[in-house]
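Re: beginner question about structure tokens

> Can someone show what the tokenized structure looks like for a real chain? I only ever see the sequence side.

Sure, here's an example I had lying around. Input first:
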Amino acid sequence: MKILKYIFIINIILLSSFSVLKAEENTEEKKGFQSVLDNRFFSIGIFSSADSIKTTVNIEFGFKIMKYNNFQIKSYTSVTGSKIYDESPHMYELGLMQKFTFGNDDEYVGKVTIARYGFAFASFGFLSFDADRSGKFLFAKPYYWEVGGGAGFNINVSKHVGIVLEFGGGLHMVHNGKELGYPEKINKAGFGRISVGGRYYF
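And the corresponding structure tokens:
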């Protein structure tokens, strides 16, 4: 019986040691650079934005490019379509936007969580109207640019679904817009923007 008692005690000690080592391994996994190939590596999103000159619908494709401790950098590329505020129904903008986000870990942990991040973006597009507000071919010059940044929140409601809420702003301009006669609010001006939508994570 004494031998069984000692074997039992030794097993308890070994199991306890294994548990401690396993916990330390899990802690070590969170330190330094980590693989980005997790269950939230890639996402598809759709959201709407409103700013001082237009409303926009964005279809977004994103992926993680870096994980370091609890810090992450992600890349998002969006196809954007906008309706510019004006009396004319033919004033549209079509473009591409590249955005990088910098923030804390946004993994779903079995309950609703909020991940905060900052972002910077640049957008390039085409206008559907000339300076005299007559229509033009959408992919013809001049070009429309935007640069800016802001802050956002991923509200993670499940393993695969997140709600997006972003606040930001920047500068938009039309290349050679002043010389071409575009109005100042379209040609070159600062803007504030709010965006709401959702992302599906794979």
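Each token stands for a local structural state, so reading them left to right follows the chain. The longest helix spans residues 2-29.
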